[in-house]
Amino acid sequence: MIEQVEFSLKPRRRGFHLITQEVASHLPVLPEKGLLHLFVKHTSCALSINENYDPSVRNDMECIYNDLVKENQPYYTHTDEGSDDMPSHAKCSLTGVSLTIPITDGHMNLGTWQGIYLCEFRDYGGARRVVATIVG
């Protein structure tokens, strides 16, 4: 069985946002075992799995990424959409736009301290579209 749904995440400001429950709310009933593939249809945000308990991790990740890929660099030529645009594309490439999560006993089989993140790299990215493909 392969099933696919597409949905929008609520708009968020720049940052690393825990979205595990929001994703789960859009999914159909999951099979007993299988795989969940998530794909975000944008080039200025990303998906990641990381710490789901301590919010300071999300803040620290934002600081790390902003230090790694700075805005307003003189060598950027793609600048028409603002100072956060080209850095958001670079951060997206570094992180990635998809995740594959095992399904066990009808649930996403994440570790105790793992959660799904939307890594929003634009100041105002808007609603992000996600395609979820369930194989099981």
TrEMBL record:
One Pfam entry name: YjbQ
Gene3D superfamilies reported for this sequence: YjbQ-like (2.60.120.460)
Protein family (similarity comment): Belongs to the UPF0047 family.
Entry protein name: YjbQ family protein
